[in-house]
Amino acid sequence: MQTQVATQTRQNLQANSMPFVLSRPHGTVIAEGVAEQFSSAHAALERLRSGTISAVAGALPFDLEEPAALIAPVRLMHDSAPPTATPTWIPPMAVTGYFPATAEHTSRIEAAIARMSDSALEKVVLARAVTISASEAVNPSALCTRLVERDPHGNGYAVDLSAAGGTWVGRHLIGASPEVLVCRTGRIVTCHPLAGSAPRDLDPEIDRTHAAELLTSTKNLTEHAFVVDHIRRALMPYCRELRLPNKPTLTKTRELWHLGTPIRGELRSTDTTALDLALALHPTPAVCGTPTATARDVISNVEGNRGFYAGAVGWTDHNGDGEWMVTIRCVILDADQTTLTAYAGGGIVADSNPGDELSETSTKLRTVFDAFEVQG
Ligand SMILES: C=C(O[C@@H]1C=C(C(=O)O)C=C[C@H]1O)C(=O)O
């Protein structure tokens, strides 16, 4: 029965009626139908708590003052198989612009580094965007399937952003994030923050050297420590036990090595849902900076509104269980279905090298560029 329903759901994906799908190594969560839409995460949480909706799925923006794109699905499906779309064909795509221009992004990094010597700012994540044009309408399911097929861990997501209203109606958020903001199963809470990056290399020996250097790089370890510290402080009030390794380990995607720390806690109360935890943790210094408020101000002054990039994508069910990923390695597909915007950022600290930071964003962009065969 479960398999039959899952097959029907996959057929719905093929028909392009896809409010939410999150593919993970351990399975896929699919929202079937939209019972209600929420642009306020707190309103959705209140309804979940009162038992008047059975689940919430969707996306939180970078700036929680901005509208969220959340739905109460008619049904939240768990499928052991990865999502599929037919056809998986996607039209040719080409870059149409860089926002800001690469020279301007480098200047912004230099200005941020200069600021760290005479202000409280210790880390800020600066991002840039690249616009892409497709020769024909793109099916969001096909993009998501492409990313999932290519991702070594089967990660991928696609979210209809219409619930956020206004200019978000008809737009989709599609990506493949390696970073778990928070996962909650019963009383067990896990996080797997990533911060600190090095490019992969086709030559296995060079690749291993990059990994080994990352693991001992003071600059990257500092960048990472800000994130773990933030998560410790944010989770402490909710957890009666919290286990944090004292040093990070390596995580790899197809394009990058990252420093990652697996964190595990036990909730004091089962009233704390996965969505409560996501709201308490977001934005971590993996996408914002340290101190949070100072870094957020810098980002908003320098970049303006990030929308859904660097937010969170996930779901929470009636038990409070759920999983939220950090919204990175992603694109926004406009309602015209031919215009896409890809985003990538990187953590800047006092001893960052602007040239290296720029190339780190180019490497991160390759997650979507290579999957969609975007011409530069
Ligand atoms: C901000 C991004 O990635 C984040 C920043 C990282 C870094 O600065 O090293 C690493 C992983 C992510 O937490 C992105 O991919 O856009």
UniProtKB/TrEMBL annotation:
GO terms for molecular function: isochorismate synthase activity. It catalyses: chorismate = isochorismate. Its EC number is 5.4.4.2. Keywords: Isomerase. Gene3D superfamilies: Anthranilate synthase (3.60.120.10). Pfam families: Chorismate_bind. Belongs to the isochorismate synthase family. This is isochorismate synthase. It comes from Hoyosella rhizosphaerae. The lineage of its organism: Bacteria, Bacillati, Actinomycetota, Actinomycetes, Mycobacteriales.
